[in-house]
Amino acid sequence: MSLLALAPASPDDWNLPFFLHVLGAFALIGALVMAASYLFAARRDGSLELMRAGYRSLLLGALPAFLVTRLAAQWIASKQGLLDADQAWITIGFVSTDIGLLVLIGATVAAGLAVRRAGRAEATGASGGGVALAAWLVSALIVVYAVVIWLMATKPA
Hints:
The protein has 157 residues and is mainly α. Helices cover 82% and strands 0% of the residues. The protein has helices spanning 3-6, 15-45, 48-80, 88-121, 128-154. The longest helix is centred in the middle third of the chain and has 34 residues, at 88-121. The protein is elongated, with a radius of gyration of 18 Å.
């Protein structure tokens, strides 16, 4: 028996927004893990290349994936008639992504400023506080989004 046979039936017009939402969410988590890895490594050894890679992971990976995730979530919620639903998992999902966007923008700006400062100084020995701040903000987002993925999968209350 396939896993698709166990899944609840849903209309075909929900498939594309749901697929985009899930694809965007996992691309977002992947980009955040990659960015955190680069930023923590840059914090440790002060490498300008690692700082740039972490910044680019946020700017070119995490931000677009966030937009796909959030827009597809809005799309699927409107198709399913869940925009006004009073369910905890939906509320937590929307609130965490709204606040998460601010944190993601803050981490991206902090990483970008750290790259700019390090590039101007041409000193790769000191990474500064911007890289550490960005790394910890990204790590907090990973933890929050892991909990949100669990909530989306289990749909409690």
